[in-house]
Amino acid sequence: MPASSSIKYGFLLIDYIVLGVFLSLSVGVGVFYAIKSWRLQQVEEEKNEKSQGDKVATEDYLMGGRNMPVLPMALSLLTTFLSGIVMLGTPAEVFQRGMWIMLRKRIVKARDYLHNS
């Protein structure tokens, strides 16, 4: 590659749109569940005038009310198990070297498996 070539890297309009949509969805889910929890708490307070105090609110927050749907729970576990290096390193690696690095590993494993069989 010539030294005088000027390759510009950066976000295009579509990149900003996708980023904005994902951030909006993330914030929207958080706001939705915050409002839902607040309304549920208001109804429960009307019923029993908060007999156990802040202990109930803290336990409800930490345990998710013990009635969290399957999909958010599965996604939470998935992101917990994956390390930050994988979450940040893989997109950077693909951006820098392309998808070949991921495909190469699978091709080599398949070749070795077929060769050893």
UniProtKB/TrEMBL annotation:
Localization terms from the record: Cell membrane
Name of the featured protein: Uncharacterized protein
Q: Name one GO cellular component term.
A: plasma membrane
Q: Does the keyword DNA repair apply?
A: no
Gene3D superfamilies xref list: Sodium/glucose cotransporter
User: Which keywords does this Swiss-Prot/TrEMBL entry list?
Assistant: Cell membrane, Ion transport, Membrane, Sodium, Sodium transport, Transmembrane, Transmembrane helix, Transport
List the Gene Ontology MF annotations in alphabetical order. Answer: symporter activity
Q: Which PANTHER family match?
A: LD47995P-RELATED, SODIUM-COUPLED MONOCARBOXYLATE TRANSPORTER
Q: Name one GO biological process term.
A: sodium ion transport
Report the sequence similarity comment from the record.
Belongs to the sodium:solute symporter (SSF) (TC 2.A.21) family.
Q: In the UniProt record, does the keyword Cell membrane occur?
A: yes
Q: How does it sit in the membrane?
A: Multi-pass membrane protein
| InterPro entries, per database record | Na/Glc_symporter_sf, Na/solute_symporter, Sodium:Solute_Symporter_SSF
- Which organism encodes this protein? Plectus sambesii
Q: Which residues cross the membrane?
A: 12-35, 70-95
